[in-house]
Specification:
Chain lengths: 292, 249
């Protein structure tokens, strides 16, 4: 039982990382109908900004996490501004935007190895590494922080999308960008908000991932798990992204604990293929119109 | 009569292309404040392209368009702030948003909360059915209700120029009549200038003050509605009166 509870906590914490990443993919997909495959580098660069800010600027943990979110948000928006927007303006097929994203996904980590070096580092926070005793199980603070802050971020995102005027504009744009423009919604502004928010989610996820594992230039590869989760949940569906992100994290942890960790990725990707064969639109994606 | 009216939209030598295909060939016309103008023509005559161009949803290659004496804005989202509103063909309501949310999107350019609430009341007054379905997703409404929603959504911005693209498309005849009655009511109550693009020429001309007949991207004929309704050529080509058929319009 203790072992199960221990794994459950781990599952929730890695699941919330996946959920944040999946929500990042879903946000962009819901409005623009393509996946930002440059998302891993966004997460990595955000995490590196916190990684350097903590020792160099003596920034405490929470402000440095915030910094990672801001940096990741800005990098995500920069991608939109310099790569995706010009391509959208030329009415490029969405497939080519995703190919450009794949290019970014290889180019930035390689550039990062040149700049930061290829080393693998622990996340520089002793506070986060320490464990606290809950009854019979020992839980790293980082796991609790991951679960709590992810929940806060997701709740804030929900409130923003469903309770504000700009959120309504984003939801309208996600259903029909053309008509949204006719209604006076500046779609480029919506794009800015969406890319900032999705980047911020990646920055937050990156910090937790760094705390749980380590900080290194290729850490963005984990974002592919977020993509798997957002696809299983139904591309563009926020609720689907959260649910399948948590589910994937839980499943992976249980498999690693009671089976073997070598089966972890095997199961995640097998699940992706199986879900796509039987439910091509994912668990919660009922159709192209069923978004946000 | 037209000489003392103020110009709202003036279009000169407009040319619009879709890729290499020309949709509008040197069209010129003028719409005056407070009037309802009908644009009649078959499929592919260029009517929708014309409305989309005026709403900022389609770029034009050449020509001059002025709205209330000024050039059109440059970005699509700025048109509604200037008072230009389009009810697009096929209504294009946001299916997943509730009726109320759809209306709120229509008021997106309006910042003042109490103005928004006032207009919401006006729209519910005009279309009580929408009030009943306030919380329902737009996609669950019937075709007629969706058209009401599309018109109501446009009304939320209180446009100076309201353009309606095929508002009768796919609706039951009784609903269509009701809808056009509402257009008249909006026009009379708010002095809203309207351009109605329609294939239902009879109804559109009966509602409008003036009409234009478009064919293959050009304006073929224009005049006061009554004149057009009585024109034998139009009766035969657009109003479905067969040869020798009675004409008691």
């Amino acid at each position: 039982m203790d072992m199960f509870l221990q794994q459950l906590v781990t599952g929730i914490s890695i699941g919330s990382v996946y959920a944040l990443l999946a929500v990042g993919y879903a946000l962009v997909f819901s409005v623009f109908n393509f996946s930002n495959f440059g998302f891993g580098p966004v997460m990595m660069l955000g995490t590196f900004s916190a990684f350097y800010a903590i020792p160099l600027l003596h920034l405490p943990l929470l402000p440095s996490i915030l910094l990672a979110m801001v940096v990741a948000g800005l990098i995500s928006f920069l991608m939109e501004l310099t790569v995706y927007r010009p391509m959208r303006k030329k009415k490029t097929l969405k497939l080519y935007l995703m190919i450009a994203g794949l290019g970014i996904n290889t180019f930035i980590p390689n550039a990062a190895i040149q700049i930061f070096g290829g080393g693998v580092h622990p996340f520089p926070s002793d506070w986060a590494r320490a464990t606290i005793q809950l009854n019979t199980i020992a839980v790293p603070r980082s796991d609790i922080l991951a679960a709590v802050l992810s929940l806060v971020m997701l709740a804030a995102l929900w409130l923003f999308l469903y309770k504000t005027r700009t959120g309504l504009g984003i939801r309208a744009s996600s259903l029909d960008t053309d008509t949204a423009g006719l209604m006076g919604i500046n779609v480029n502004f919506v794009a800015m908000i969406v890319f900032l928010l999705s980047g911020a989610a990646a920055g937050l996820a990156g910090c937790f991932y760094g705390m749980k594992y380590s900080v290194f230039p290729n850490m963005g590869a984990i974002a592919s798990k977020g993509f798997v989760a957002s696809t299983i949940g139904g591309l563009g569906s926020l609720a689907g992204a959260v649910i399948s992100g948590l589910l994937l994290g839980f499943l992976e942890t249980m498999i690693a604990a009671y089976g073997s960790s070598t089966y972890r990725d095997l199961i995640a990707y097998a699940l992706l293929v199986i879900v796509l064969i039987f439910m091509p639109r994912g668990i919660l994606g009922k159709g192209m119109q069923d978004k946000l | 009569m037209e000489s003392k009216q103020t110009s709202m939209v003036k279009v000169e030598n407009l040319e619009v292309f879709y890729g290499g295909i020309q949709a509008i060939h040197g069209v010129s016309f003028e719409v005056f404040q407070g009037e309802i103008v009908a644009m009649i023509g078959a499929n592919g005559a260029g009517k929708s392209s014309l409305l989309k161009t005026l709403a900022g949803n389609k770029e034009y290659r050449s020509g001059v368009i002025s709205f209330m004496g000024k050039p059109l804005p440059t970005r699509t989202y700025q048109f509604i702030e200037q008072g230009i509103s389009l009810v697009p063909e096929g209504r294009k309501i946001f299916v997943n948003l509730s009726v109320k949310e759809n209306l709120m999107v229509g008021a997106y350019a309006v910042k003042n909360r109490s103005v928004i609430n006032e207009r919401l009341e006006e729209v519910f007054d005009l279309f009580p059915r929408l009030k009943e379905r306030e919380k329902q997703p737009g996609g669950t409404l019937s075709g007629g209700e969706q058209q009401m929603l599309a018109v109501g959504r446009a009304m939320m911005a209180q446009p100076k120029l309201l353009m309606l693209d095929e508002p009768s498309l796919g609706l039951a005849p009784i609903i269509i009549d009701e809808m056009f009655e509402k257009f008249k009511r909006i026009n009379e109550a708010h002095g809203t200038t309207m351009i109605i693009v329609e294939q239902n020429a009879q109804l559109a001309l009966e509602t409008a003050h003036r009409g234009y007949i478009m064919k293959t991207g050009k304006i073929q004929m224009e005049g006061p509605s009554q004149e057009l309704l009585n024109n034998p050529y139009i009766q035969e080509a657009y109003l479905g009166f067969g040869e020798g058929g009675s004409c008691d319009a």
